[in-house]
Amino acid sequence: MSERRFDPTTGEWITFATHRQNRTFLPPADACPLCPDPNNEWDGEIRRTDVQIAVFDNRFPALSPTPPAPDVDSDELFRAEPASGRCEVISYSSDHNATLAKLGPERISLLVNAWADRYQVLGSEGHAYVLPFENRGEAIGVTLHHPHGQIYAYDDIPARPLRELRTAAEYRTRTGRCVNCDVVAAELADGRRIVAESEHFVAHVPFWARYPYEVRIAPKAHTPSLVAVADEARDDLAGLLHRVFVGLDDLFGFPLPYVLGIFSSPLNGEASVAGWDGSWDDISHLHLLISPPNRSATKLKYIAGTEQMGGAYSTDIAPEVAAATLREKIPQS
Amino acid sequence: MSERRFDPTTGEWITFATHRQNRTFLPPADACPLCPDPNNEWDGEIRRTDVQIAVFDNRFPALSPTPPAPDVDSDELFRAEPASGRCEVISYSSDHNATLAKLGPERISLLVNAWADRYQVLGSEGHAYVLPFENRGEAIGVTLHHPHGQIYAYDDIPARPLRELRTAAEYRTRTGRCVNCDVVAAELADGRRIVAESEHFVAHVPFWARYPYEVRIAPKAHTPSLVAVADEARDDLAGLLHRVFVGLDDLFGFPLPYVLGIFSSPLNGEASVAGWDGSWDDISHLHLLISPPNRSATKLKYIAGTEQMGGAYSTDIAPEVAAATLREKIPQS
């Protein structure tokens, strides 16, 4: 079963991929599917002795290019469709115990290029929205410890990016400006929530952070996706990202769990879906969001009652205080 | 600091309540703030020897009726407001180790009446939306084990209920019908996802369940809130809820963690906010949602990459299969 179903009470789609029940769950280090397995000793994904960055199809994909027909009948109220799209895994290193902080800016530069490359290729395959993300740490439920991320290519724009695009379209219609350009300029002018800066990018705790130590990274100039970032500016971003990862791991003295997501311009479909009559690029401003669940070294913020049922986030650390703490931990050059 | 800030990139408000950093965290059983403390030996909330259901203000509220002015200046882009509203705690029992399954239908009937009463009283105080919820189990981050729930009274309609109301308004405009009435009728007609039923209510795994063992309970007839449920039907609901709680705790043989939420009609403000020109009650159909994070006895579903960043839920158990399992566990009368 690999299908998506429509929730007629919220207008959102939910994906069901029952084969994922059997996905690899915290395997022992000597049978890690992401460690190099040149002689195919444990059915690993990487048949080489060494790799830097490797991208391949997820063996247990939630979305696939050729999904089967849905299990249930579809009608006007209860709509079911094949779960089409593509799910990839992106390994950051051959070393099972590496971290992005330890791998350094050059490897992160390669990773930025890989994200940009897959964004472009998956767009050319016709997918509507490409979301690279990383789930890191058992606190947010990783099933493989090997340093890696994922890339989901959706065949329509998923709910959260769509909400951002609709909000950006409204803002642009009302003011003539890009909301993310205005946010970046306002954060730079205020300064209290900036945690690191490079020539082309800025890293800040958002004024409205949903997680105490949330970090948002965006280009200073209007840029729809990584593809529009020049080579030199990609290295600049990699250097900034590296400093942020070093600081996050230094915050409590252990590799900080987080969810990372990269928000870019949609690749197919009309911007009228978001209420905009121009191009997607007009209302899309690249940003990376890193959301660690920790509110202290030993306590996590949970998405429970008010967040899950209300959609109303509540948090207990002021963004200005969190930013001051992070600024101390993040190398400033 | 007790303020809310607007996220101009999504149009949502986030609450900051820094005093909540010091909230009581998993206290020892002999200093539980919800256990009866008639002689005020440990500054407990309940100065009686015994109570059945007790409701009182949360000592560490995210929202309060008289919040201070925000810490930061507000401008057109970065808006900050006092975090006004009210947060209550509702204790289910004097017994620290009780569960709703063990307390039985009569106590749950009292609880249903307390939810209805607080909904009405908090509405008469002028709050816009009343959300009773329960966070249960360390897996979803409870800080107190004593059986209890919470009630948040928001001064505007929070994001998720607002999304449901807007979707219901669109559906009603398009079809002339209530989407939740149609969902209940369709689930009853299909039958595969029904897990329990009473005279006036039905419990089902939604066709679009975001969590594997999610249970949704709704009145068969259009009913905007618990206040509109007659006494006899409240007892009927309590009996059904009791059976569901018994079944959930029997599913894996331990008290199942979950987040429970009760969605009702807004109490103040105009329905035009949701794109509807009639009354809130026209587009509001009471429903309770119970979302357990477990996908098995030992594995949890985490809200990570695709859910958190994409807003696109992905799950790995078919709702029809989960419903069949639950139906075996839930007493059918």
TrEMBL record, chains A, B:
Protein keywords: Carbohydrate metabolism, Galactose metabolism, Metal-binding, Nucleotidyltransferase, Transferase, Zinc
InterPro entries the UniProt entry points to: GalP_UDPtransf1, GalP_UDPtransf1_His-AS, GalP_Utransf_C, GalP_Utransf_N, HIT-like_sf
Listed GO CC annotations: cytoplasm
Pathway: Carbohydrate metabolism; galactose metabolism
Catalytic activity: alpha-D-galactose 1-phosphate + UDP-alpha-D-glucose = alpha-D-glucose 1-phosphate + UDP-alpha-D-galactose
MF (Gene Ontology): UDP-glucose:hexose-1-phosphate uridylyltransferase activity; zinc ion binding
Positions annotated to bind Zn(2+): C32, C35, H96, H146
Domain spans labelled Galactose-1-phosphate uridyl transferase C-terminal: 165-328
Domain Galactose-1-phosphate uridyl transferase N-terminal: 2-158
GO BP terms, alphabetized: galactose catabolic process via UDP-galactose, Leloir pathway
Enzyme class at the top of the EC tree: transferase
Cofactor notes: Binds 1 zinc ion per subunit.
Cofactor(s), by name: Zn(2+)
Catalytic residue positions: H148 (tele-ump-histidine intermediate)
PROSITE patterns listed in its UniProt record: GAL_P_UDP_TRANSF_I
The enzyme's E.C. designation: 2.7.7.12
NCBIfam families: galT_1 (TIGR00209)
Family the entry assigns: Belongs to the galactose-1-phosphate uridylyltransferase type 1 family.
Protein known as: Galactose-1-phosphate uridylyltransferase
Organism the protein comes from: Kineosporia babensis
Lineage of the species this protein comes from: Bacteria, Bacillati, Actinomycetota, Actinomycetes, Kineosporiales
